[in-house]
Design goal:
The chain is built from eight helices and ten strands. The longest helix is centred in the middle third of the chain and has 18 residues.
């Protein structure tokens, strides 16, 4: 039996990013993934060329992305680290070219890369290490950037060996609470912070399942939850579907997770590869939640 959803606190319905406030109450926001990398787990290499990445990002905006999350270093298990200089070379031209679109997020764990991205026009730092770089808080504070704090143990190279928990939801919650308190000590206002449970990062399949089922328990921390479950490997193990072993066959499972979280208000920002399908699913979900009248469409022609 699924635990009841925990009602988010009033403070969990908005997110301040630099000079603007994103209102999360009318609808969940879709964060489109732009990997400017040769080795990301799902689309590595497809948009490694900056111009291809820019064109892909603009298509995601046309498809309905509210935010673009741009990354220049893969965080898949076992990924090879890249230098600061290389990461900046990959992401800054893309950010500069997209400054006229939607709010931009830089997916990085390095403060120097975050600084370059924010100078280029980014609004958000998406940090999988939750301020693991001691210099990161000062950068976020100076630019008054939005910040995503994610739960992960170790590094992408070591996290697979660290996926042991006595109580995964309690331990993830404690970690995120500790990092949220660190933000306060570093002068980062909590209105600028959202929290990410880190689905697939130092988690086994059943840990991911527990986190998804009990995601509402993280809402007691008082900040919005960002969910990144798109095309994750554990989805391919559900239902013994051989075709879902391939990343690009996991869309139905990704949408199921996203719609469940949004319908229960346990997550209000959803990070995805498939923006158009996700936005469509959310529009249908919203129509149902508003009474279903919008689902009827135009009147049937007279017979």
């Amino acid at each position: 039996m699924m635990p009841p959803a925990t009602t988010p606190a009033e403070s969990a319905w908005s997110w301040t990013i630099r000079d603007r406030v994103l209102d999360l109450r009318p609808r969940a926001l879709v964060m489109g993934i732009v990997n400017v990398t040769p080795d990301s787990f799902s689309d590595g290499g497809r948009y490694f060329d900056p111009q291809q990445a820019i064109e892909h990002a603009r298509q995601l905006v046309r498809d309905g992305a509210d935010i673009l999350d741009i990354g220049g270093e893969s965080t898949r298990p076992g990924a090879t680290p890249v230098s600061v200089e290389e990461e900046i070379r990959r992401v800054v031209p893309v950010i500069e070219a997209l400054a006229d679109t939607v709010p931009l997020s830089i997916d990085t764990m390095k403060a120097t890369v975050a600084e370059a991205a924010l100078q280029a026009g980014a609004h958000i730092v998406n940090d999988v290490t939750a301020l693991g770089d001691p210099a990161m808080p000062a950068v976020v504070r100076r630019f008054q950037a939005g910040l995503v704090l994610m739960h992960m143990r170790g590094t992408p190279q070591t996290m697979a060996q660290l996926a042991d928990y006595d109580d995964v939801i309690a331990e993830v919650r404690e970690h995120l609470q500790t990092r949220l308190l660190l933000c306060g000590k570093e002068g980062i206002d909590e209105t600028r912070v959202v929290l990410d449970p880190g689905i697939g990062f130092a988690k086994r399949s059943w840990h991911n399942g527990v986190l998804l089922a009990r995601l509402g328990e993280l809402a007691t921390l008082g900040r919005p939850i960002l969910l990144g479950v798109s095309r994750k490997g554990f989805l391919g193990k559900i239902g013994n579907r051989a075709d879902a072993r391939s990343e690009d066959q996991r869309l139905p499972a990704s949408l199921a997770c996203a719609c469940d979280a949004v319908s229960r208000n346990t997550a209000r920002i959803i990070r995805v590869h498939d923006v158009e399908a996700t936005r469509y699913a959310f529009d249908v979900l919203a129509a149902i939640q508003h009474g279903g009248t919008e689902l009827a469409g135009p009147p049937d022609p007279a017979l």
